[in-house]
């Protein structure tokens, strides 16, 4: 099984180049970078088909017109995920849940103002714990 990490990094921001482990709790870690909300929607739609064990979504700041234009498609893509997801952001204002109010909330929401590396480490630890609990 695979854990999918989707990092939303707008094209005008510096992408996170932090090293990631190859495996988490015995599961392969795959990473996808998305530079826009439409790209994030496509990543989520691909996750519906590839069916990773868990999806981690790192969000970034998005302006109101983008939420208005792509919010419904993003909400639908989140709601159609057949697996749990963990959302991570640097503040509450960037969180998907705050803007989209999906029918199914994330399994966990990590808000970490100290940086994306800390948010990622914490989210991967939560993912490992959840997967180990499921596998018993």
How are the elements arranged and paired?
Blueprint (H helix, E strand, L loop, with lengths): L1 E7 L14 E2 L2 E8 L2 H14 L3 E5 L5 H16 L5 E5 L6 H5 L7 E4 L4 H20 L1
Parallel strand pairs: 1-3, 1-4, 4-5, 5-6
Antiparallel strand pairs: 2-3
Helix pairs in contact: 1-2
Polypeptide structure, described:
A six-stranded mixed beta sheet has the order 2-3-1-4-5-6. It contains four helices and six strands, in the order βββαβαβαβα. It is α/β, with parallel strands linked by helices. 40% of the residues lie in helices and 23% in strands.
Gyration radius (Cα, Å) is 14 Å
Strand order of the largest sheet: 2-3-1-4-5-6
Q: Order of SSEs, N→C? A: EEEHEHEHEH
By DSSP (H or I, 4+ residues per run), the number of helices equals 4
- What would you say the CATH architecture is? 3-Layer(aba) Sandwich
Largest sheet: 6 strands, mixed
Helix content: 40-55%
Shape: globular
CATH topology name: Rossmann fold
Name the CATH superfamily assignment.
Answer: Dehydroquinase, class II
Low-pLDDT parts are: none
The structural domain count equals 1
Whole-number mean pLDDT? 88
Strand content: 15-25%
Strands, count: 6
The CATH first-level class comes to Alpha Beta
Beginning-to-end CA distance, first to last residue? 15 Å
Secondary structure category? alpha/beta
Protein name: 3-dehydroquinate dehydratase
Subunit structure: Homododecamer.
InterPro entries: DHquinase_II_sf (IPR036441)
Pathway: Metabolic intermediate biosynthesis; chorismate biosynthesis; chorismate from D-erythrose 4-phosphate and phosphoenolpyruvate: step 3/7
């Amino acid at each position: 099984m695979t854990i999918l990490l989707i990092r939303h990094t707008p094209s005008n921001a510096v992408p996170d180049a932090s090293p990631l482990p190859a495996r988490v709790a015995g599961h392969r870690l795959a990473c996808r970078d998305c530079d826009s909300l439409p790209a994030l929607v496509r990543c989520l739609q691909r996750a519906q088909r590839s069916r990773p064990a868990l999806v981690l979504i790192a969000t970034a700041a998005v302006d109101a017109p983008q939420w208005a234009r792509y919010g419904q498609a993003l909400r639908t893509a989140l709601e159609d995920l057949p697996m749990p997801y963990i959302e991570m952001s640097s503040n509450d204002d960037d969180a998907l849940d705050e803007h989209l109010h999906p029918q199914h909330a994330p399994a966990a929401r990590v808000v970490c103002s100290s940086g994306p590396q800390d948010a990622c480490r914490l989210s991967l630890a939560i993912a490992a714990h959840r997967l180990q609990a499921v596998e018993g």
